[in-house]
Amino acid sequence: MKILITSDAHGRLDRIEQVRQKHRDIDYHIDAGDLGINPHHLERFHIITVKGNNDFFSTAPYERVLDFATLKIYLTHGHKEHVKFGYGRLIQKAEAVGADLVVFGHTHQTFYKQENKIIMINPGAIGDYQGSYALYENGQITFHKL
């Protein structure tokens, strides 16, 4: 299974299109919020997303639990869990739902850490100068830049 992981596009549909063009073989595309694009494009690209602190008109939930056959993901933007000040709330929520992987955004910084058998990742921000994102494939996570 190959999952494209993005966050913080902040309306940069061109960046979403660019990364999708580069990775046509993905099974899923999940996004950790602050996407800021028209909901029509969510449907077009089949993006599973959550609402970030700048997604003012989004009807997406603030968090999701995605249960794939061998992988359970807790997906959130991170602002509600105050990730800029630590990861305690994030870990608590992930443990409560039995997640293997936590995907969050908000800080615009790539991040990887394993704690209590839970892997936490932030793909960074695809919409800013870094243009960063991540791929999950067969248990491995890699970070990329546009």
Write the layout of secondary structure elements.
Elements: E1 2-6, H1 13-22, E2 28-31, H2 39-45, E3 47-49, E4 63-68, E5 71-76, H3 88-97, E6 101-103, E7 110-115, E8 118-123, E9 132-137, E10 140-145
Parallel strand pairs: 1-2, 2-3, 5-6, 6-8
Antiparallel strand pairs: 1-9, 4-5, 7-8, 9-10
Describe this structure in words.
The chain is 18% helix and 35% strand. It has helices spanning 13-22, 39-45, 88-97, and strands at 2-6, 28-31, 47-49, 63-68, 71-76, 101-103, 110-115, 118-123, 132-137, 140-145. With 146 residues, the protein is an alpha/beta fold. The two termini are 22 Å apart. The protein is built from 3 helices and 10 strands, in the order βαβαβββαβββββ. The strands form 2 sheets. The chain has a 5-stranded mixed sheet with strand order 3-2-1-9-10. The protein has a 5-stranded mixed sheet with strand order 4-5-6-8-7, covered by helices on one side.
Q: What's the total helix number? A: 3
Helix-strand string: EHEHEEEHEEEEE
Based on helices, strands and strand pairing, what is the structural class?
A: alpha/beta
Question: Which CATH class is shown?
Answer: Alpha Beta
* Largest sheet strand order: 3-2-1-9-10
Low-confidence stretches: none
The CATH topology is Purple Acid Phosphatase, chain A, domain 2
Query: Cα-atom Rg, whole angstroms?
Result: 14 Å
| CATH arch. level architecture | 4-Layer Sandwich
Task: Give average pLDDT, whole number.
Answer: 95
Gap between N and C termini, in Å?
Answer: 22 Å
* Helix fraction by DSSP (H/I, runs of at least 4): 10-25%
CATH evolutionary superfamily: Metallo-dependent phosphatases
Largest sheet: 5 strands, mixed
Number of domains: 1
